[in-house]
Amino acid sequence: MKSSARFSPNVFRAYDIRGIYGKDLTEDLVESVALSYATMLGNSGEVLIGRDVRLSGERLMQSVSKGLREGGCNTVNVGLVPTPTSYFGVVWWKMSGGIQITASHNPPEWNGMKIITKGGETISEGAGMEELKKMVLEGGWKRVEKKGVEVSRELVSEYVEFLMSKVEVERKLKIAVDYSNGASTIVFPKIAEQLGVEVVGLNSEPDGLFPGHLPEPNEETLRDLQRVVKESKVDFGAGFDGDGDRVVFIDDKGRFLAGDITLAVFVKHLKRKGKVIYDVNCSSVLREIILENGCEPVESRVGRAFMLREVRKLEAVIGGEKSNHIYFSELWGFDDAIYALLKMIEIISKSENKLSEIVDTIPVYPSTPIMVFDCPDEIKWKVVEEIAEKMVKEGFRISRLDGVKVYFDDGWMLIRPSNTMPQIKMSAEAKTEEKLREIVQYGKELIRSTIGT
To answer: Do domains 4-154 and 174-359 have the same CATH topology?
Structure first.
C-alpha cells in the first residue's frame, strides 16, 4: 500500500467519499478507507459490500474487501445493487456496517464510497467522517493477525419481497421509466413484472459508461422521457439516477416535477399524520401543503446524512429534498428511489385523478432550478461565509441552517456550497416573476464577485 501522505483529502466530503477514479480515488485509497473503517468497528464484525454499475466498481470492491478483511472484518459481497438495497441489507441482516461503491449521479470517470453504519446511517460530517479522514491520511488504522473471510450472498430477492409487502396497487398502470443505464435496472423490472405494471423502458441496460445520458435525472437529461410520456399516453414517467436513491417524476402532461412538488403529492396521501422534514431549498408552498394536511413542517439541511438523522430523531412520517430524495419512515427513514416509484404507483392506482390533476391542486410560486457556479473546494465554504457576513451587514434576515438563506419581503434565495462537487449552488423563489428576476440577478452578481470571477 502506498504512503497515506499521497492521498487527496478532497475526496472526503460531507456525507461520502468521492473522486475521479485513478486520480483522486485509487485502489490504495479505498483499501485504506476500508481498513480504517474496520479499525473504527473494533477490528471485528460483518460488513456488507455492494456497488453500482461503474466500470471501476469491481476493482474497487476487491480493494474494499481486502482492507476490511485485513482489519479483521468478515465481508458479505452482494454485488451490483442500488445503494438503498445495501442500506436495507445492513439493517435487515443486522450487520455491523456496509460500504457501497458508488458516485451516484456523477460522470462515469468518477467513483466513491458511502460508508454505512450499523443502523443504516452513513458516516458523514459530524458523524465519523472527520475521524475516518484523520485515520486514513495519518495511517492510524490497525491490521490484525486473524484476517476476515469473504462470502457472496444474494440480496435482491429479499429486498424486492420487502418492498412489495409495503405497497398496495389497486389497478394496473402503464408508466415510462428512464433507468439512466444505472443500478435500478437490476431491481425495478422484477417488481414491475410481479405487480403487472406495464413499463416503457428507456436506457434500461446497466452500463457504467452511461451511454444514454449522464446518470443525473434533470430537465436536460429527461427530455426523451418527457417525449415518450406524451407520445405513449402513459400514466406518468419516472427517471432514476445512477445508484437508485433518487427518482424524478414526469406527470402525464409531460411536466417535470421538482422534489418539493413530489413530496407535496405524497403528503396529500399520507395514511398517518406527523412531522414532515424538508430541506431549505423547498418551496414555501410545501410548508403550506404540510400544514393544510394536518402535519407539522420541519426544515432541515440538504443532504442524506442530515435528512435521515432528522427523520429518525423526530420520528417523522416522511421527508424529502428538492433534489428528489424522498425519505420514508416505513423504510427506517431511508431514501429509496424504487420505493418512491412504487408509492407513486400506489397513489395513482387508488386515485380517481391523474397525476397531473393532483399536481394542479398545488400552487406554484415562480422559482429557479438549482443554479451551479464553479468554485474550488478549498474556498467554497469561505465564499459562502463572506456572503453571509455581507447580508448581515446590509440588514437582511438570514438563516444559517445550510449555507445562507436570505429572506426578502416577497421571496428568498439560498446560497450554499455543494456537499459533493467543487461548486456553489443557488436557488431562489418569489411571489412574482419580476421579483424573482431581481433576486436571481442580485444573487448571481453576489456569488461571482465574492468568488472573484
So the answer is: yes
Q: Which three cell numbers stand for residue 230?
A: 406524451
CATH architecture of 174-359: 3-Layer(aba) Sandwich (3.40)
Domain range 4-154, CATH class: alpha beta
Report the alpha-carbon distance of residue 286 to residue 353 in Å, rounded.
20
Burial of 128 (0-12, 13-18, 19+ CB in 10 A): middle
Residue-averaged pLDDT of the chain? 95
Residue type, 13: R
Cα–Cα distance measured from residue 83 to residue 74, given in angstroms and rounded to the nearest whole number: 20
Detail the DSSP E strand segments found in 34-135: 46-51, 74-80, 97-101, 110-116
Q: How far apart are CA 69 and CA 47, in angstroms?
A: 9
Pairing mode of beta strands 17-20, 110-116: antiparallel
Q: How far apart are CA 398 and CA 390, in angstroms?
A: 11
Predicted confidence (pLDDT) per residue in 142-182, tens digit:
999 999 999 999 999 999 999 999 999 999 999 999 999 99
Tell me phi and psi for residue 20, to 5 degrees.
-80, 125
Q: In the beta sheet, which residues pair with residue 428?
A: 413
Across residues 331-351, what is the average pLDDT? 97
Backbone angles phi, psi at 296, to 5 degrees: -110, 120
Average the pLDDT over each of 55-69, 80-94, 411-425 and give the range with the smallest value. Answer: 411-425
Sequence ranges of the domains in the chain: 4-154, 174-359, 371-451
Distance CA 37, CA 15 (A): 15
For the chain, the residue count is: 453
- Choose among 314, 321, 324, 302: nearest CA to 384: 302
Which residues are part of the catalytic machinery? Answer: 104
Residues 6 or more apart from 223 whose CB is under 8 A from it?
Answer: none
Write out pLDDT tens, residues 249-284.
Answer: 999 999 999 999 999 999 999 999 999 999 988 998
Burial class (CB in 10 A: 0-12, 13-18, 19+), 250: buried
Within the chain, what is the greatest distance between any pair of CA atoms?
68
Give strand pairing partners of 77.
49, 152
Q: Which CATH architecture fits 371-451?
A: 2-Layer Sandwich (3.30)
Residue from 410, 431, 301 nearest 363 by CA: 431
